[in-house]
Amino acid sequence: MTVGDLYWVELPVRGGRAQAGRRPAIILQTISTLPTTLLVPLTTQLDALRFPGTILVEPGRENGLRRPSVALVFQLTAVDSRFVTDRLGNVSEQVLEEVFSALDVLTGRT
């Protein structure tokens, strides 16, 4: 796994509005010796773009998505690495830069 890879992930139910269930997610760490993996979940609910900290990811051969999806950067999470399953592909450098820019805004680094 490397930063920018897209994997299917089984997100546990945590309650509230946090994403749960099987969904694609963007991997945001390269250290594989940790028991958890940092990731950004995706949704196909395009109305989520109304929230700050979201990025549209168009489907493509490189990323393996079949539908337009929204990266929910504001839901950055760590999950048990055993819940990260099949690789779909990887996001473009542009999408990855947008993810890190959104993180900068959300954390006040800009």
**What's the architecture, going by CATH?**
Roll
Distance between the termini: 28 Å
Major β-sheet annotation: 7 strands, antiparallel
Instruction: Tell me the β content.
Output: 35-45%
Radius of gyration, in angstroms, nearest whole number: 13 Å
Count of helical stretches: 1
Provide mean pLDDT, rounded: 92
Low-confidence stretches: none
Beta strand count:
7
- Amount of helix: 10-25%
Q: Work out the count of structural domains.
A: 1
Class from secondary-structure proportions: mainly beta
Overall shape: it is: globular
Q: Which CATH first-tier class would you pick?
A: Mainly Beta
Order of helices and strands: EEEEEEEH
CATH topology: SH3 type barrels
Topology diagram in text:
Elements: E1 5-11, E2 21-27, E3 36-43, E4 54-57, E5 69-72, E6 77-80, E7 84-90, H1 93-107
Antiparallel strand pairs: 1-2, 1-7, 2-3, 3-5, 3-6, 4-5
Q: What report would you give on this structure?
A:
- There is one protein chain.
- The protein is mainly beta and 110 residues long.
- It has one domain: SH3 type barrels (Roll).
- It has one helix at residues 93-107; strands at residues 5-11, 21-27, 36-43, 54-57, 69-72, 77-80, 84-90.
- Strands 1, 2, 3, 4, 5, 6 and 7 form a seven-stranded antiparallel β-sheet that branches.
- A hairpin with an 8-residue loop joins strand 2 and strand 3.
- The longest helix has 15 residues, at 93-107.
- The chain is globular and about 30 Å long.
